[in-house]
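Serine aminopeptidase S33 domain-containing protein: structure, please.
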Amino acid sequence: MGNVTASVAAKFAFFPPDPPTYDVFREEEGRLVFSGVTADKNVDVHLLDTKGGNKIVATFWKHPFARFTLLYSHGNAADLGQMHDLFIELRAHLRLNIMSYDYSGYGASTGKPSEFNTYYDIEAVYNCLKNEYGIRQEDLILYGQSVGSGPTLHLASRLHKLRGVVLHSAILSGIRVLYPVKMTFWFDIFKNIDKIPKVNCPVLVIHGLSELVTRRVALLICTPKRTLARLSADVVYFFVVRTGTNDDIVDWSHGKRLWELAKEKYDPLWVKGGGHCNLETYPEYIKHLRKFINAMEKHSLAKQTKKQLTTNTSITEVKHNKCLRFGKR
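Here you go.
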């Protein structure tokens, strides 16, 4: 049953655009470029080898006066060709380098998308940042949108000197998107709920507060007779859907719980009326992100000062101890 359920969850996790919205080719001088995208001398295109045996596309958007580098893991229904305008905006408004990538099976990346392939993918991208650009953990902010929160928290739970983490419309786990279970099953995917307590840097959570009514419906999955024979007669899969919206929308309770479990909380951004795929269109999105980046810069300077003084004086940090109260919808 576990394997079947995990397989169902995986099918609901990945929706690569078909056909891809771009291609990659090599110019005469050997430089990799995107097709269909205006050339930008401040964007490097890479083809990276992963531990999963795939080649993935990664792009490094350089800012001449960057304060930090943002490693961006996008959502489950987009590829890099669709993220172009957003990266231009983020680079300009936040004064950051941006490293982005397509998961295995997305865009011009080879292979098939899977949970573990996304982990191999982000590890390859991080190694590129470290080896090709000399980016230190202390100067790196990880950003995960939707399913991208999975590889983001996978890496963040292993790197203990990161500057910060941003979780945008993040999920608690794959099965919890389908049904709000209280325990984590071994066959679950993207077990973010178990990984976020291991993250040692400040965490910003951005999530939409949709006013639409959420309802649960039971859906019996049509499976081959051989598969059904191995299952008990009362197996039913539950899916969370929203009236009037796509069925892949993640409830705001996922973001709320992730924020509660974070060791070092930063003021969250709850976007009233925001959906799963449009939060970046709200003016408070860039404003709050800029505030977070500025805070991380001050946090970095404070740590440097502490190290230079070599005293036991602790850095004064703003703690967010007030409980957020949410009315029932």
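Notes: Residues 180 and 240 are 8 Å apart (CA to CA).
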